[in-house]
Amino acid sequence: MSFFKKLKERMFRSSDKIGEGLEALVSEGAEDVKDPGQAIPEPVLDVSQAVAPGLPEVDEPEAAASIDPAPAARRAASVAPQPESRTQPQPEPEPEAAKPGLLGRLFGRVAVEEPKRVLDDAMLESLEELLIQADMGVDTAVRVTANIAEGRFGRRISTSELRAALAAEVARIMEPVARPMPLYPQKPQVVLVVGVNGSGKTTTIGKLASQFKAAGKTVVIAAGDTFRAAAVEQLQIWGQRAGVPVLTAPEGSDPASLAFDALTKARADGADLLMIDTAGRLQNRQDLMEELAKIVRVIRKVDPTAPHNTLLVLDATTGQNAVAQVEIFRKIADVSGLVMTKLDGTAKGGVLVALADKFGLPIHAIGVGEQIDDLAPFDPEEFARALVGAEG
What we know:
The chain is α/β, with parallel strands linked by helices. It is 46% helix and 11% strand.
């Protein structure tokens, strides 16, 4: 199964919410596609009497002269028994199916054509509300709606046309931020992974480590959230799945000290990447800020250019809270890119559009499940089509 099919199937909550909303928008104010000022003649039932429009009627005197003067006698003769014929009568060829006339073709087209609605102020306002409910945010929803209206305002538009226009606009916003995590020649490349507890940091680290190893890279993981034993255990499980070593320290140890030891070992072993997990306790931002700052300060004693990437992992189910998290972590750490998880469990997938529009940070990958291959590079066009419920 391609990742787009998986994405579309698992983003059903976002896709259904937006897709059904678009259909409702059009159907609520749909107009008849034919010109309301044009009278449509009644269809001709007797095709023998139908006259092609614009053609003169032709007199047929020979037909008139051939009328039987004795219809009763001929009818009687027609039912009289006939002598048997020595040859079996050949079946008459079936007449060719009559081609539909002008009115038939017209009515046939009307029957299958999508309902359309004039794109007016009321429809645009409803579209804005729909996008805000999908967590695109007010500013982004207004901007997207205005761009869709450009060149279309006052025209009748169908659901499929509206869906295509919305997908194109979402893809246009997302295109500049769709960039894979850069790899550098520096060994080891230090990747600091941050985010609130429960956002999916641990699973994201395991999935990325698996992908880097499959690409031929040697990876080391440091379990830097030393205050949660469950986080360390989960990371060890993912390390086993990915076939990557996980360096740990006793519960309650200094995360900066572990990061220092892990970087020293990774450098000695010639590893390509070192991925450092961190705590995500936002209830006390000052402590978290000091902890992350200390980690950066200590690892720079080994490599002054580290960390080379700081990935912020976000949970799509939090909706607009993800925007606030980006603002906080940009102050706490020098965030270089985003990973969005749990897009399969929410109707709020539009928040990723809001993040791209507001911050312009690179989106490296998105996750739609718990399996090790349920994380893929971010593709703006596939995401846009899946978000609006379009076909692949």
